[in-house]
Amino acid sequence: MNTKKILFAVVAAATLLVASCTSSTASDDSLYEQGVDKTKINKGNSNG
């Protein structure tokens, strides 16, 4: 029983460590920083 708790704690800590080390650099954000060309937006005439 005690071994299961220790193993669970190690797995939980490893999961948090891997999740916190994901890449989040400025180069990854370049896809989301591009502008929207408003002339290419299709406004449909739907009334709801």
Let me know the number of strands.
Answer: 0
Work out the helix count.
1
- The succession of helices and strands, N to C, reads H
CA-CA gap between termini = 59 Å
Global morphology: elongated
* Arithmetic mean pLDDT: 78
Coarse structural class = mainly alpha
**Rg, Cα atoms, Å:** 23 Å
> What is the helix fraction of residues, given as a range?
25-40%
Question: Low-confidence runs (pLDDT<50, min 5 residues)?
Answer: none
The proportion of residues in beta strands is under 5%
Largest sheet: none
Keywords: Signal
Signal peptide: 1-26
What does this protein look like?
Residues 1-26 form the signal peptide. Keywords: Signal. This protein is an all-alpha fold and 48 residues long. It has one helix at 2-20. The longest helix is centred in the first third of the chain and has 19 residues, at 2-20. It is elongated and about 65 Å long. The protein starts with a helix and ends in a 28-residue tail after the last helix. The model has no long low-confidence stretch (mean pLDDT 78).
